[in-house]
Amino acid sequence: GAGHWGDFPARWQAAWPGRRVLVPDWPGNGARWAERSPATVGGLTEALRRDLRAQGVALGSEPVGVLALSLGAMVSCDWAQRHPRELAAAVLVNTSLRGHSPFWQRLRPARYAGLLRRSIQPTPAEDWERHLLAITAPLHARSPGAAATLIDWVRLRQHQPVSRANALRQLAAALRYRPPVTPPPVPLLLLSGAGDRLVHPACSMALARAWGCPLRTHPEAGHDLPLDAPDWLIEQVRHWLQAEAPTDQ
Origin, by domain of life (predicted)? Predict the structure, then answer.
């Protein structure tokens, strides 16, 4: 959910102080944890668009830039393909798309098997979140800020729990999504972490080759790039916007 972004939205806002920064939750996550999650990427896209309209975003007339991670990147890709006039640019972080990479790279089996075992077995919330943090953000997990992040994640797990059913629906959405053969007609930047233990970095490389879009890879960061290397991420986006999207408003 939105709470898992930590202080990154504030960092992003500081980098672009004239922009309005929104961190929406889709059904089944965050503040909307009690709602039923759509089981398709298209359904998640439409839920996101409805939420943004409800927050006063004039889609189609107000330029929207998107930064999205993993499944969120799939949703952004679908959004850009079906409603390109609504997006000014999209930055996709550590994503993988069916048809561009083999299944074993898109979902590294050993890591997901371990997470599945822990989800089935009774596991204290703090142990679960510590394990998840070590897998998704290995650099941050070894930093002084890890303890505070762990406290936040345990609190979110207790107050905004993602049900097993919603987690499975979102996993099904990711696995079933068929991306477009050609890139969406929106400026795209791909970012990845060479230390990603959930999705193989080769997935972003394959997508960059297929779509001819730029890819920047952090040499050590993991799957949760905004948590592991927030300043690096912001600088990559800043340089890209300056060099490749000079009309950005």
Answer: Bacteria
